[in-house]
Amino acid sequence: xxxxxxxxxxxxxxxxxxxxxxxxxxxxxxxxxxxxxxxxxxxxxxxxxxxxxxxxxxxxxxxxxxxxxxxxxxxxxxxxxxxxxxxxxxxxxxxxxxxxxxxxxxxxxxxxxxxxxxxxxxxxxxxxxxxxxxxxxxxxxxxxxxxxxxxxxxxxxxxxxxxxxxxxxxxxxxxxxxxxxxxxxxxxxxxxxxxxxxxxxxxxxxxxxxxxxxxxxxxxxxxxxxxxxxxxxxxxxxxxxxxxxxxxxxxxxxxxxxxxxxxxxxxxxxxxxxxxxxxxxxxxxxxxxxxxxxxxxxxxxxxxxxxxxxxxxxxxxxxxxx
Length: 322
Fold this sequence. Notes:
By secondary structure, the protein is mostly beta strands. The chain has one helix and 29 strands. Strands 17, 18, 19, 20 and 21 form a five-stranded antiparallel beta sheet that branches. A four-stranded antiparallel beta sheet has the order 1-2-3-4, with no helix packed on it. The model is unreliable at 1-11 and 318-322 (pLDDT under 50).
């Protein structure tokens, strides 16, 4: 089964999400910051056919999927916009405000990295036939390391590749030296994220992989083989939060309906049992926010610090970074 399936419906696109300083609304016609009383604090107008939001703790990017335009924001408002040459198919933004955009181009794809000041810092072409289809491209928090994940079909097997690159001292002479290419047979890596400057976490269909990047990647010995389906994933400075669903072996329960936090070395930190299925989950700084059908909960580490019952119409506000 696929590791990650994303379905986009754009006919009446209307997304709400939260950063630490409030709630934002994104439509095909722009972005609005919503105050606590429901009024609009500020807005930025644009027209995009297929808007998709990429977020970090303090920044977000609105790109036009299969289009050419993207807009960058921080918590105070609009920063800049860019028009790229090829169709946007992936994007990301790190905690430093630096943006990664992946574009489709005939027999290849292009990875571009933009600094917070909008300058283009890196442009790299990779070929579908030899290197695979791009799954994600993500920067470390200090923007010195980049990981590009691809999936390549070879005969009847699927191979995932992680290409690690060092960008040097960001803001000075940027290089694109490849520090390592790691290959995983019969594995689909669908999600990856740096949780700080040197620890990278990858989520595959049957295991969790952690790496120390300094600048060459070294895989941790604490590879976690999972017995349950991974339903939701969120990241913050504590590590990765995995919400587990049904077990692969149906006679077993395993970690079903449990959120487990793993640190950057792949070691289990704590578990949070869930008394009802999790619909959305996001993490920022040291907090984890969890939404079920009727309740919204906030955890600090394993301790629940807030719970409230929610009207169903408000649940979409908290559907962040799944």
